[in-house]
Amino acid sequence: MAIRMPRIIQARKILRRSLSNGSRTPTYTDIPKGYFAIYVGEQEKKRHMVPVSLLSEPLFQDLLHQAEEEFGYNHPMGTLTIPCSEDVFTDLASRLGAF
């Protein structure tokens, strides 16, 4: 079993950039410890709380790279946005143990 530290570190950097480049200041009081907020959806975006442990999952890292390609780091929503349907994300997150 190999540990992919460079991918984990890169995923964390993507998350930090997304949170720091937002148009509004994130409110950390409504995010439980060990979680982070993301928006999911192609047209209408819905906010989800996701455990930080997903950052080490290769499938979730692939989604982060897609988000980087589609939205870049300065997204108007002000936080990380995943460009896939909510059904696909919910299915993936439940298989990875997030929900």
UniProtKB/TrEMBL annotation:
Q: In this record, what's one Pfam family?
A: Auxin_inducible
Any one Gene Ontology BP term: response to auxin
InterPro entries in the record: SAUR_fam (IPR003676)
At the top level, the lineage of the source is Eukaryota
PANTHER family reported for this sequence = SAUR-LIKE AUXIN-RESPONSIVE PROTEIN FAMILY-RELATED (PTHR31929)
Which family does the record claim for this protein?
A: Belongs to the ARG7 family.
> What is this protein called in UniProt?
Small auxin-up RNA
Protein species of origin: Helianthus annuus (Common sunflower)
